[in-house]
Write a structure and sequence with these properties.
Elements: H1 3-13, H2 20-33, H3 38-52, H4 56-70, H5 74-103, E1 108-111, H6 116-128, E2 133-137, H7 144-154, E3 158-162, H8 167-170, E4 176-179, E5 183-184, E6 190-193, H9 196-206, E7 210-213, E8 229-230, E9 247-248, E10 250-253, E11 260-262
Parallel strand pairs: 1-2, 1-4, 2-3, 4-7, 7-11
Antiparallel strand pairs: 5-6, 6-10, 8-9
């Protein structure tokens, strides 16, 4: 594998700030571009299985791709990846239309973290409704909310960035809150970035709707989710015998706290 190819793949596999939809899109484009290099393709697919299969949508994608690769059906592999690329645009348009039917009168939306699905829907929304305003929490410790803000500002949207702790202060001012999903469990509980549960509880208290935007590929046949702590140094690079630092990136939001899961 060439150094440049290795770097490009590494950026995709080690991306901790983008949503799973964006990571999957980047992976599909990389594999499609390198399909004719069988060795690079197979090594890249192997690494993707090792590092990304915990994401529901990516796992579903990899299962289909692995089955085709196992029988060396490269013609259908190329067709599968091209179909995926083509269907992405259709998928987001379907989700957007389903969202807009419910929130066509909304002017101010609050969201958190970074979700490729949410970003694409907000861009489509802005194309139809130019007075749309987005409030985004910074989403500590990785500050994915800042990345979302930068991308939406490039499109011309009005954006207000706030701290995570300010969400309760701002909810009375918004029409609705929307979040993405890393997975939707069989019981319709949703797995998403930490901060989503707090937002859901605040929405319940303030009687504001909370919508989850998720492609069908995010739905999994599981009913349980186990939280996994990540590096504590992302929070604070400090050591003390009486100090415990816990950094959890994903959490579960119960179905009864969600107004609706909107899909394609």
């Amino acid at each position: 594998m060439k150094v440049k190819d290795n770097e490009k793949l590494g950026k995709i596999l080690d991306d901790k700030r983008s949503g799973s939809s964006e990571i999957l899109s980047g992976l599909n484009n990389f594999l499609l571009l390198n399909l004719n290099n069988r060795k690079l393709f197979n090594v890249s697919l192997f690494k993707a299985n090792q590092k990304l299969s915990h994401f529901a949508a990516i796992n579903n994608y990899l299962k289909k791709l692995n089955a085709l690769t196992k029988i060396s059906d490269y013609k259908n592999i190329k067709e599968f990846m091209n179909d995926f690329k083509r269907d992405e645009g259709i998928l987001y348009n379907r989700i957007f239309e389903n969202v807009y039917r419910k929130l066509s009168s909304a002017k101010t939306i609050l969201t958190i973290s970074r979700s490729g699905t949410v970003i694409k829907i907000l861009k489509l929304w802005f194309n139809r409704k130019r007075n749309l305003k987005i409030i985004i929490t910074e989403s500590r410790p990785a500050n994915e909310g800042i990345l979302t803000a930068k991308e939406l500002l490039k499109e011309g949207l009005k954006v207000e960035l706030i701290t995570d702790a300010m969400a309760g202060l701002y909810l009375p001012k918004v029409d609705a809150a929307i979040i993405g999903a890393d997975a939707v469990l069989k019981n319709k509980n949703v797995i998403n970035k930490a901060g989503s549960l707090s937002l859901a509880l605040l929405c319940k208290h303030h009687k504001k709707p909370l919508y989850v935007l998720a492609a069908k590929s995010k739905f999994v046949n599981k009913t349980r989710y186990k939280t996994e702590p990540e590096s504590s140094e992302k929070l604070w690079k400090y050591r003390h015998p009486n100090l415990k630092i816990t950094n959890i990136s994903f959490e579960e939001i119960e179905r009864n706290l969600i107004t609706e899961i909107i899909t394609d």
